[in-house]
Amino acid sequence: MSRVRIIRVGLEAVLVEVTDTAEATALYAEARRRAVEAVDIVPAAQTVLFSGVPDVDALVASLAGWSLDAPSSEDGPVVEVPTRYDGPDLEAVARLWEMTTAEVVRTHTGTEMVVAFCGFAPGFAYCTGLPERLSVPRLDTPRTRVPVGAVGLAGSFTGVYPTASPGGWQLLGRTDLTLWDPSRPEPATLSPGTRVRFVEVGR
After folding, report:
1. Are residues 133 and 186 in the same domain?
2. Which of 2, 35, 140, 150 is positioned for an S-S bond with 161, CB 3.0–4.6 A?
3. Distance of CA 23 to CAs 66, 84, 124, 145, Å?
4. Which structural domain range is residue 19 located in?
């Protein structure tokens, strides 16, 4: 893996820096495939952190032989997100994509996505799958309150707000699916590696 930078963090952690989100997703998938022994493996936009590693030297040595090829689209579990496409920015996204709003909905629901990483808020998943040509900018002025369940776009990512919060993503619609419940054994509905399908429901 000549394109990566491997950084030892303390005595029991390794941070691997890669060039983009696709490589971070592939590296995380490879770590899961190899069942790497670690307390936690945390992917981000251009990094993967291995923490609580019992043998850091062995991990660093093995990383050179890892593949950064895209993981199979059938590797992770599938979660369907029922979505009402009535968001305040749907028409703005249609103009950016040079489509009708109906075509935007068909494009979004017709794209199987994968959770690359989580962040911003507990349970907030950054879903990849849309092509770069459909990237959209964040709002110039973020909203002071985005409702829970709002489905939005920023760059080429799709995200769903697990709780009400400020935010600057372009909102396509909203889902009633619970994205974060700390009372569950696995609080996050969408975790890294999960395949996500957005399904249109009645407005």
Report:
1. yes
2. 150
3. 11, 32, 20, 33
4. 5-63
